[in-house]
Write a structure and sequence with these properties.
Strand order of the largest sheet: 2-4-3-10-7-9-8-5
Strand content: 25-35%
Order of helices and strands: HHHEEHEEHEHHHHEEHEEHE
Number of strands: 10
Low-confidence stretches: none
Length: 326
């Protein structure tokens, strides 16, 4: 389990994933060496990783949440193939191991029959059913973090960390020349400017300027991957809900305040709202389903898919040493 310093460090990274250890240390009231040591320990033992990700709407991509029903014999191989792909994230084994859920990233203008959705999946042996749900809007997840991982710092501490992140509100799409920079940040969002300069062939000053531009526009944000079990989570479930469109915003406003939810998004398909619940144990999940979700009459139907294992987290780049995450 995490102590107060661990929780404070993780919260600080959620606010500014590239904040220098010296700034985090000043906010937490410890030395920079102590913060660096804690970060290295959490990275080695708990899979803590900061990753740089692009906003899909500004980068010309569509995200699809794909559900695959598979035979038990083929589940491991199919899941492994999805994990290794560069166009997937959040690959999960669910529903007793016979369901695999993954987020697939596809260019908006893609017409090729070699895409994962149109070519690979229908031709893969061992898959008995496929459904694809376009993610229309993400309310919780991405740059909006799970509430229970961001409760350690008070408002003054949060403000001190936000001062290092400029925002100008002017939307900018990443350029083709940013590909090497973004690929390096997907692997390690805290890579130094010297390392990023070597990856891109740019001068360190150019790297710093372009990073600042992408962050200020919201095109680039930083996510924190860490094992949710450190926060006392032992039970995870995907929740597929059907809500009348006219009542969707009201339900979303209510659910966005639920500490149990680490992900909430509107989708296409027979269910139009999907969430991931993180709970202490099965009894805690049962209470959440019956008392909190059950009190919302606007939810017409609800399907619960227990998540057995998270095989890949937010970054499309898998780190072999990383453990499971949210």
């Amino acid at each position: 389990m995490l102590d107060d310093l661990d929780r404070g460090l993780i919260h600080a990274l959620h606010i500014d994933g590239r904040a220098p250890f010296s700034r985090i240390a000043s906010v937490l009231g410890v030395s920079a060496q102590t913060v660096a040591r804690r970060y290295r320990r959490l990275s080695a033992e708990s899979g803590l990783r900061v990753v740089g990700l692009t906003d899909p709407h500004q980068s010309g991509r569509t995200q699809w949440l794909v559900r695959l029903t598979v035979t038990p014999r083929s589940a491991r191989d199919i899941a492994g193939a999805l994990v290794r792909r560069r166009d997937t994230s959040w690959v999960k084994s669910a529903s007793g191991g016979t369901e695999i859920v993954a987020v697939v990233h596809a260019p908006n203008d893609s017409a090729t029959d070699r895409s994962l959705l149109l070519y690979d999946i229908p031709r893969t042996a061992g898959i008995t059913a496929v459904s694809a749900h376009c993610l229309l809007h993400t309310y919780v997840g991405g740059s909006a973090n799970w509430r229970r991982s961001t409760e350690a710092l008070d408002e003054d501490q949060r403000r001190a960390l936000r001062e290092g992140v400029a925002a100008d509100g002017a939307p900018r799409r990443p350029a083709a020349g940013d590909a090497e920079l973004l690929a390096a940040l997907e692997k390690d969002g805290r890579a130094g400017q010297g390392e990023l300069a070597r990856a891109t062939g740019w001068a360190p000053a150019t790297v710093g300027r372009r990073l600042a531009e992408l962050r200020a526009s919201g095109a680039l944000f930083f996510d924190v991957e860490v094992d949710a079990g450190l926060f006392g989570v032992t039970t995870r479930a995907l929740l597929w809900m059907s809500v009348p469109p006219s009542r969707l915003e009201r339900v979303v406003a209510e659910l966005s305040g639920h500490d149990e939810l680490a992900f909430l998004a509107a989708t296409t398909g027979p269910t139009n709202l999907v969430a991931q619940a993180l709970c202490r144990d099965p009894a805690d999940l049962h209470r959440y389903l019956t008392r909190r979700l059950g009190a919302l009459e606007e939810i017409r139907s609800l399907e619960t898919s227990p998540v057995l294992r998270n095989l890949k987290a937010a970054s499309p780049v898998l780190m072999t040493a990383a453990r499971t995450h949210r």
